[in-house]
Design goal:
With about 350 residues, this protein is an alpha/beta fold. Helices cover about 25% and strands about 25% of the residues. Helix 5 packs across helix 6 and helix 5 (about 150-155) packs across helix 12 (about 295-305). The two termini are about 15 Å apart. About 45% of the residues are buried. It binds zinc ion (2 copies).
């Protein structure tokens, strides 16, 4: 089968590698759709702290946002059959440690992340090997391309973990990448009365509008902090979701959140931040809550995709065939206004 392997910064090629066999509780799955994520791009460019820290190592069979069809099952697979449409956790648990044997696969300390840290061969390949205990059935009405968005949107869902959102709520989302878009989409699904999307590119803000954003702020033209602070009689917004991944965005979030409000941080900054306004957080009783996806989120997001009339499809701004993926990586500037590039397999 064909797989795209990254051997070092800006060095990748398609290779012919053995198709994984289905043994024990493992299944061979044909990849149907795969999303390209910022992490994948940083593996391609080498500009990632995960690489400089040695957590992600070359050669790397990357890719972790995917959906596919089961084509073969091992002798101990009981929950899936050939032909089932599935997606998976973003890591593969060992299956043999005490946690795994107790069924707590998410606590497995030997888990290997798909296509990233301690790399399990990822989804930029025609086939993958996935154990049944990390796999989930795609709900019938959800197409493969939406199912490949479940992984990033599971991170978006963490913005609301333990938060109460209702029609009196305003949710402000900073950043117009896939995770920010997912937060806009989920905020409306959860019933937020008003959702504000802050970005720097009009075409991406237009996607936020399609997903339900009520107010769009282009931060290149408008002082976003002033605009959001003006809400609620100058007290700011009760729930601000930071997805931009740059520290200016985080500090803006802390300045536009209301007294007693919450900032949900869904980004990686790849460094420790100086200038964190701790006194403002204390004085204004601000909760800063981090999230990177958690157990249960993928199934929940799949359920929302199945039942909610608004579909997250506008997040997909480009389609590229798998055979054209390397060319796309070499010419990423041609995709400058991308949100999510979806890789299509034959
Ligand atoms: Zn990702
Ligand atoms: Zn384990």
């Amino acid at each position: 089968m064909k797989a795209l392997t990254v051997y070092g910064p800006y060095d990748a090629s398609y290779g012919d590698v053995p198709t994984p066999e289905a043994k024990g509780r493992f299944m061979t799955v044909k990849v149907e759709k795969a999303g390209l994520c910022a992490t994948d791009i940083s593996i391609w460019t080498g500009k990632s702290s995960f690489i400089s820290d040695g957590l992600i190592r070359y050669p790397c069979r990357f890719g972790h946002e995917w959906s596919g069809t089961v084509v073969a099952v091992g002798e101990n697979v009981s929950r899936f059959r050939v032909g089932d449409r599935i997606f998976s956790d973003s890591s593969v648990s060992c299956g043999v440690c005490p946690d795994c044997l107790a069924g707590n696969y998410s606590r497995c300390k030997h888990a290997r992340s798909l296509g990233t840290v301690n790399c399990w061969d990822g989804c930029f390949a025609e086939y993958m090997s996935i154990p049944e205990y990390n796999a989930y059935r795609i709900p019938a009405p959800v197409p493969f391309e939406q199912a490949a968005l479940i992984e990033p949107l599971s991170i978006s869902l963490d913005a609301f973990h333990g938060a109460s959102v209702d029609k009196t709520s305003t949710v402000t989302v900073i950043g117009t990448g896939a995770i920010g878009m997912g937060a806009v989409w989920l905020a409306k699904y959860l019933g937020a009365g008003r959702v504000i999307s802050i970005g720097r590119t009009d075409s991406k803000l237009a996607v936020a509008a399609k997903l339900g954003a009520d107010l769009l702020i282009n931060a290149k033209e408008t002082d976003a902090v002033e605009a959001v602070r003006a809400l609620n009689g100058g007290d700011g917004c009760g729930l601000v979701v930071e997805t931009s991944g740059n520290e200016a965005g985080l500090f803006q979030a802390l300045r536009m959140v209301s007294t007693g409000g919450r900032v949900s941080v869904l980004s990686f900054y790849e460094k420790n931040l100086n200038g964190f306004p701790m006194d403002t957080i204390a004085l204004n009783q601000i909760s800063v809550v981090g999230g990177a996806g958690r157990v249960g989120n993928p199934e929940r997001v799949a359920g929302v995709m199945a039942e909610y009339a608004v579909k997250p499809t506008p997040i997909i701004t480009h389609h590229v065939p798998f055979s054209g993926m390397l060319d796309m990586l070499k010419n990423l500037d041609d995709y400058r206004n991308r949100i999510k590039i979806m890789i299509d397999f034959d």
